[in-house]
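hiii so um. not sure if this is the right channel but i have a protein structure encoded as tokens and i wanna go backwards to a sequence. like what aa goes where. can anyone help
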């Protein structure tokens, strides 16, 4: 064992289980390197080393601190079958060597049994002078999953730690405890103002895990003076997917915020909430300024099949006076066309009945406005609708002669996605294989291949 390669020993044990007993016997060897390698091998074997736990525990008293540290690590790797070692490992939280203290808190988490000794030792580890020890103690408290008041209270204090890593781990551990960590909500809400985005992200995840119990407190923070906090609150409410009308109304009102980042978070939250937010978003398309109309349309377009009742509003927005709103409506309809192509049943039916009749013809009319980017986005949306956009083929053929490279490109692409040959489509696309723009040529070739396969 002195110079043995660990992987070779492990391989031997796989072939002959009796070799394990030989390794256990080497734990008492006078030669340090042999003891060390034996400890290392048992750790790598994990639960298979359960027969050697008692002998390993004797190594915790070794005069060589590195032997002690490796023993703690191996006992942790062996897992819950090392339960009888918990008290001895817990005593090492007071060891002068920080690396041993660190391995002790990690091992207690890996053993994963919430005994009195485990809890008190990990709580003590949260107050350790070493940042690494505090971080690992916070993580281990999450692993044991105890909802003991002392655990939650200690983790709440960890949320205020000077170390970003410790704060993040403390919050993540509260997340693992979940709904039973409701007492931590006030601390978590304050942590939404943390200077580090990783901490804030962990807070949002944890509040989401706590769920509806956090909603009343979150609503109180909707008017917080700090825009970063308001963004975090809105994102959390969206992640929880709160359907309460009061909550939806508050998020909808945030579309009026001066800060662009907050408006975007509000739109994303409404999209995430889905159908319960649809009436307010439809209202936003009709009775808002340009920015809010665009955000409302974007949110509906991202809802997938839940957006079915909002399709008529998107079609209506194709006549909006503002180009930016019309483009957003085009994109939204294109997204919904994508979903139809993936055969989401309820929306597929609606798109065939509604979009094929009303939206496609509305889109056709947009292929000849003055703005090239509108023509381009129109072609993209028609392509995403797919075969149901058959009526648009003549207009798309005309668009193949557009002066704008991007319009010719997207029109070619759309014809390929629609995939219908009318007798004119292939010849018209063939005329583009020598286009001055390389990507137009490529799109035409790809489109012809798609049509031939259809």
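sure thing!! here u go:
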């Amino acid at each position: 064992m002195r110079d043995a390669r660990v992987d070779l020993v492990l391989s031997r044990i796989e072939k002959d289980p009796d070799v394990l007993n030989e390794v256990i016997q080497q734990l008492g060897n006078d030669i340090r390197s042999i003891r060390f390698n034996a400890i290392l091998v048992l750790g790598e074997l994990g639960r298979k080393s359960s027969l050697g736990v008692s002998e390993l525990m004797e190594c915790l008293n070794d005069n060589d601190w590195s032997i002690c540290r490796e023993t703690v690590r191996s006992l942790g790797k062996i897992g819950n079958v090392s339960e009888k070692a918990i008290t001895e490992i817990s005593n090492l939280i007071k060891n002068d060597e920080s690396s041993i203290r660190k391995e002790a808190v990690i091992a207690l988490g890996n053993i994963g049994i919430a005994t009195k000794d485990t809890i008190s030792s990990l709580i003590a580890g949260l107050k350790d002078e070493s940042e690494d020890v505090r971080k690992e103690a916070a993580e281990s408290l999450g692993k044991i999953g105890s909802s003991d008041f002392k655990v939650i209270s200690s983790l709440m204090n960890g949320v205020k730690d000077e170390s970003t890593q410790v704060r993040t781990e403390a919050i993540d551990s509260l997340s693992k405890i979940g709904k039973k960590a409701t007492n931590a909500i006030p601390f978590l809400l304050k942590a939404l103002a943390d200077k580090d985005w990783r901490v804030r992200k962990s807070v949002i995840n944890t509040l989401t895990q706590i769920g509806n119990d956090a909603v009343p407190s979150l609503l109180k923070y909707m008017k917080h003076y700090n825009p970063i906090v308001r963004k975090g609150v809105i994102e959390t409410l969206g992640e929880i997917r709160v359907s309460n009308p009061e909550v939806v109304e508050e998020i909808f009102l945030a579309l009026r915020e001066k800060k662009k980042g907050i408006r975007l978070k509000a739109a994303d939250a409404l999209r995430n909430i889905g159908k319960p937010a649809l009436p307010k978003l439809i209202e936003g398309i009709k009775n808002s300024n340009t920015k809010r109309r665009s955000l409302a349309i974007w949110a509906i377009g991202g809802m997938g099949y839940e957006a079915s009742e909002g399709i008529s509003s998107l079609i209506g927005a194709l006549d909006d006076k503002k180009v930016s709103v019309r483009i957003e409506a085009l994109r939204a309809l294109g997204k919904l066309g994508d979903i139809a192509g993936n055969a989401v049943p309820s929306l597929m039916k609606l798109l065939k009945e509604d979009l094929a009749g009303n939206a496609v013809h509305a889109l056709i009319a947009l292929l000849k406005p003055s703005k090239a980017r509108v023509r381009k986005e129109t072609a993209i949306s028609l392509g995403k609708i797919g075969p149901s956009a058959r009526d648009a083929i003549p207009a798309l053929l005309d668009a193949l002669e557009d002066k704008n490279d991007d319009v010719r490109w997207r029109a070619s692409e759309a014809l390929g996605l629609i995939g219908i040959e009318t007798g004119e489509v292939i010849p018209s696309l063939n005329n583009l294989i020598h286009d001055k723009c390389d990507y137009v040529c490529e799109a035409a070739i790809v489109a012809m291949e798609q049509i031939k396969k259809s």
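oh and The chain is about 70% helix and 0% strand.
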